[in-house]
Every structure is written in C-alpha cells, then in structure tokens.
Design a protein that fits this description.
single chain; alpha/beta; 2-enoyl-CoA Hydratase, Chain A, domain 1; N-(1-d-carboxylethyl)-l-norvaline Dehydrogenase, domain 2; 28 helices; globular; binds 3-hydroxybutanoyl-coenzyme A; binds 1,4-dihydronicotinamide adenine dinucleotide; NAD(P)-bd_dom_sf; NAD; NAD+ binding
Amino acid sequence: MIQPVFQPCSDTVSYAQVEHIAMLRIDNPPVNGLGDTVRAGLYQGVERAQSDSSIKAIVIFGSGKMFSGGADIRQFNTPKANAKPMLRQVIRKITEMTKPVIAAIHGTALGGGLELALGCHYRVATDEAKLGLPEVNLGLLPGGGGTQRLPRLIGVEAAAKMILNASVVKGQRALDLGLIDAVIKGDLIDGAIDFAKGIVAKGEITHPVIDQRHLVRSESTIAAIRGSLNKKARNARAQSAALDCVAYAGQGDIEAGLDYERSRFEELVSGPESKSLRHIFFAEKQALKVDNLPPEVQASDIRSVGIIGAGTMGSGIAMAFANAGFTVTLCELNQAALDRGMAAIHKNYDITAAKGKLTQQDIQKRLDCIKTSTDMEALSGADLVIEAVFEDMAVKKSVFTELDRVCKQGAILASNTSRLDVNEIAAVTRRPQDVIGLHFFSPANVMKLLEVVRGDKTSNEVIATCMSMAQKIGKTPVLVGVCEGFVGNRMLTPYWREAWFLLEEGASPQQIDSALTRFGMAMGPLAMADLAGLDINWATRKRLAPTRRADLRYSKVADRICEAGRFGQKTGAGFYKYEQGSRTPQPDPAVDDIIRACANEAGIARRSISDDEIVERCMLALINEACWILQEGIAQRASDIDVVYVNGYGFPAWRGGPLFYAETIGWGVVLDKIKQLERAQGGHWTVSRDLTSRVN
Ligand code: 3HC
Ligand code: NAI
C-alpha cells in the first residue's frame, strides 16, 4: 500500500485519503484516550470526509499499541471532560453520515473506545484485539452510549453480563457475539480498506446498532441478573446503575436511553466511590515505579524459583509461581513436611477445580511445575530463592547462611518475613546486594499484594527484577523499606492498639468489628486477628517489650487472651469462640470477663462507646502511622500505602485507602482530631511533620 500522507485534524487526530477512503488516525499516547482534542479531531475529520465528494467511506483506527483505552480518565472532573464535542456528539455525527464509517480495531478497544466503535456503522478487528466496557471497575458505567448500543447489537443478557463483569472478548468471540463484522487476518489497515471497499461496492449502509431486533422484553432477565449482584462489591453502586441503564435500553427509544445513561454516568463520575476507585487505578500503576532508578538498570529474567518451607506461605507462594508457569523447587526439612505442603497444594487446586475454574489438565500442568526436595543443594541453579520458614531470626539466619553457600552467583535471595529485619538477615551472607524481602500475604496464591522490601544494600537490579517478576505472577508490588512490620503490618499495630483500648473503655469485640465492617473493611480488626493467629503478634509484643515506653498506656487484653491459650481460629478461640470446623465468630462471655478485668486493673471506667468513635479512632490510628511511614521514607509515596491497604488488608477500595480517605475528611480535621487524642492519650498520637505539612 502507498503510505498515505496524514494531515492534522487536531493535536491528536490526523486525516489521510487512500483512493476513495478517508483514514482517521487517533494518535494520543499512551492509550489513545478520547480526550477533548481527540473528540474534536474525530468530529472535524468525519465532517471533512462527509463534505468531500471523492470520499466514499471512512476508516477510524488508532496508532501505537491500541485502538483506544477509552475516555481520558485523567480529564474526569475537569472542564476538558465536558468540552464540546462530547463523545455522544461525535457518534451522532457518525450515525448521520451517508457514507459508511468503519472502526478498525487492534490492541484494545475499551470503554469509550469501544463505544466509539459501536457508534460506527461497522467494526473490524484483529483476532488478538480485546474489546470491553470495563467502566464499572472504575465505579462508572459506559457513558458514551455503551449501555444502549451493546444490548441492541448482542442482546440484553449478553450485554448486561459483559458490562457488569467488565469482561473482555477477543476477535473471533466478538465476531461470534455479533459485536464485530469481520476478523482481519494480516495487516489490519489493508484489511479494513478492503472491507470498506466491499461495503461501498454493495452501495448501502446497514446500521445494526439501531436495529431493535435484540430488544425483546427482558424484565425477568434483568431481575435475575440484579438478584445475582454482590451488594458488597467495591463497585456495587456502579453495577446497579449500569444494569438500570441496560434495562432502560429495553424501552426502545435510543435518545431517551442515551439521556438516561448520561444522567446516571454524571451521578457516578462526581460521586466519592468512583473518585476513590480511579485513585486506586492510578495508584496501582504508580506503585510499579521505582523512584530514582538509573535508566540503565535492567530487570533480569527469572526462570527457576526455589522456595524454602512448605507451610502455609511456602505452599501458597509455590502455587503463585506455578500458576504463572514458573518452574519451582519446594524445599523442606523432611519428607513428611513436604508431603503436608504438597497435600495442601493438591487440596487447594481441587477446591478451585470443584468451582469449575480449573480443569484437571490445568491442575496437572501446574503441579508439573513444582518439584520437591529435602536438600538445599537442589536450589543451586535457582535464579530466585524465597525463604518462608518459621518467623525466627536464628532460623532465618541459618537458612541464609546455607543459601549463601549453595546458590549460584547472582541468584536473588529473598525472605518472606512479615516483620524481621531484612538487613540483619542479609548481613549473614557475602552478598547483601542480592538479598531482599518479598512479603507475600496469605493465601499467597490469591492475595494480590506483594511488599517488596528493599534492604540498605539491596541492588537496584534486584529491586527492578523483583518488581517485574511480581507483575508476571499477577501481583501488585509495592516497594517498601525496612522497619518493624514494613508498611502494612506496622500500621496494624496502632490500629489494633486502638481496638484494644476501645474494648477496655466499654466496646465489645462484636461492636468494634461490626462498626468497621459497616465502614467497609472486609473484616473487623478482632476477627482478622483471630484469623491471622494471635500467637504471632504475641511473640512480636514479647520480643519488643524491652523497647516499649513505660509512660504510655498499654492494654493487656490481647496478652491475657493468649495466656488463656486462645490463639484465634486455629485453637477454636480468640477474641471470639468458634464451633468445631466453623470460621464464624461467636461472642464469648469469657472474653468479656478478660476485658472487664483488664479495665478494672487499669482503673478505666467503662462507658457506652459509639460506632462513630470506633471507626474514627481506628482510622486515625492508621492515618497517623501512615504519615510517620512517609516521613521516614519507608514508603515511596502516599498512594503506595493506599495500594497496600486496599490489596492486602481489606480496606474498602471505594474509599480509596487510608490516606485518600483522610483527604476526603480533610487534613485539617484529621490533624485537629489527632491532637485531641494526643491530649487524652499522650505519645501514642505524636504527630509527624509529614502530617502537619499536609494541612498547610
Ligand atoms: N485514561 C487516561 N490514562 C490512562 C487510561 C485512560 N483511559 N488508561 C491507561 N492510562 C494511563 C495509565 O495510567 C498509564 O499511565 P502512566 O504511564 O503515567 O503510568 C498509561 O496510560 C499506560 O497504561 P498501562 O500501563 O495500563 O498500559 P497497558 O498497555 O498495560 O494497558 C490498558 C492499557 C489496557 C488500556 C489499561 O491501561 C487499562 O485497562 N486502562 C483503563 C481502561 C478503562 O477503564 N477504560 C474505560 C475508561 S472510562 C470511559 O471510557 C468512560 C466512557 O464510557 C465515557
Ligand atoms: P509455617 O509454620 O506454616 O511454615 C513454616 C515451614 O517452614 C514449616 O513447614 C517448616 O517445616 C519449614 N521449615 C522450618 N525451618 C526450615 C528449614 N531450615 N528448611 C526448610 N524448611 C524449614 O509458617 P508460615 O505461616 O508459612 O510462615 C512462614 C514465613 O512467612 C514466616 O516468616 C512468616 O512470618 C511469614 N508470613 C506468614 C504469613 C501468614 O499469614 N502465615 C503472612 C506473611 C508472611
């Protein structure tokens, strides 16, 4: 094909003519977002093609990696988002054309990108192209006609499911659904031009998106889908509103449907949930970036992974790597421990298979990736070794001394410790530059978060490799520094402290947990402590007791519960009691007695506590500690802490994480309230410079 000469329609859209076809190219990196200049350029280009009598058809395509990733999310809640022409006007212009308009899709067509394509008369795509309307992931609904046009094209049920699940379909499947008109093999643009010529030769435009065939009355379908929605989902409000819009499409008048869709979109885009979910979307992308990494630093390739310890964490970590196709060698003290670990892995896969999420072949493929050994020499060729043995510094040090002896030069030696000092562990090796913390969360094959713990001597190459490896196994990595508990667990300490203080002051475990789950936490702090195992933190408290400030209030509630042999779910009793084989927390009068005794000993007069006070004090404890973490440079940025809490600790994504939440309350209010608590409780609430600087 002769290379066409493109002329600008706007900063981000250009126009060229190939024989009697007008080519409109979107060129707005990184994702060809449909910002104000793209919409203006498309509008102008379509108008130009309409008025040029030599043009018989128009092909719209994207440059770079994709057709379009959708509306430019960064422009939302700014004047540019509503600058004319809006996407609806661009699409109206297209639908009014007397010449066929074809969207030629490669890479992805998501959100507004797919809605633009739905507004065209025809869509062609490569077989690899991914098409979807994922707006609900951002707490939004398709606001450029998607809820009205998709049902008309592929039917109400299929459209509702695609929109509510934010599912993405690829070329051939999109063709089968009727979402596109052709899959193009070979060069997309040549194929799209040939397709356009074929349409011109037929001499007529069909416009299936205004075809009413699929709009059969669908109340029962909609009701069934509505009944299946999870009301506690992070995007529950958006899903419900999107379904309302799809239901509205069934009424038949597309213009009324578009008006309705727009009003619901506006409601969501200006609401707090979507703002929070968009914050988390960008925060997760930002978390991948390592500040001040010299450009020449390259991530190396990890091919084989060794894991030491096949307990709760080691077996989960092995699955996380095997699921992504990595070869794993799982190493234990003896065959019996290995057998227990492998049995846990088999059981986990069987549960997933029983839910229909994996076939026996999938499972076998994953199991084939996992080798076992009782000899550390088996790890001599591994590119990365992750230690997940007992949380005991002496044991960790002996494992790392041995790893230093057996592992090849350049291998990364990682610890999954949850709280121990990675620098102290690194110091027993002759290669501290290759030592790093990789703090997975339980269950490690499921939880997205990975704290990548940079030691004082960890090399940039090792950090870059771990950040990249984490993404390959589907994790969301956050780079953190060394301190007691890193980011996530460190913040739990004051969070739990406040929960225990509130118990002494008059709240019950059930009241504390239900107040915080109503706030949106996946679990209350006390039920979560029971799940994690109370003995682990008890051991930490004992280890840190010599450094504890004697002048500060200390609650003995958790210690007393542990002294009674109550370590949480694993012993059938903790802050709650648990029936045999059940994970449901039941209130336990024995715990109330322990709490009352502790309050008496400490001379605390118990009172009635409001749910608001519970939420406020627990949240302020998280926020205050987060600011200290930032001041000490343990986290790179505030949004990283939000990513940690949303992905690892069940913080409601629709509140954006503890620091985004603080912003929504207002930093001035946060500071005032923390100062009040400091006056009441003293040094637990000392304010960091980071926090005060946020107010000014
Ligand atoms: N608007 C603005 N910026 C976007 C964006 C968007 N729609 N999508 C991605 N970006 C940014 C990312 O933040 C990142 O920025 P950075 O380089 O500064 O960190 C950059 O583009 C590249 O993004 P990725 O690293 O994610 O690139 P990938 O190639 O891995 O993935 C993608 C590309 C599949 C498009 C992915 O970015 C994605 O899923 N984006 C969101 C898609 C989406 O939700 N679209 C719907 C938007 S809402 C809408 O369209 C409303 C409409 O109905 C009116
Ligand atoms: P676990 O007790 O379930 O498993 C530890 C395993 O290590 C046991 O199977 C034991 O036989 C094995 N082991 C001990 N010494 C060994 C050695 N020298 N060589 C080979 N194997 C050895 O412990 P868990 O819960 O899996 O914890 C492991 C590590 O992960 C700890 O550092 C813990 O702090 C950390 N962690 C635990 C989390 C959890 O929720 N359980 C969450 C995040 C981190």
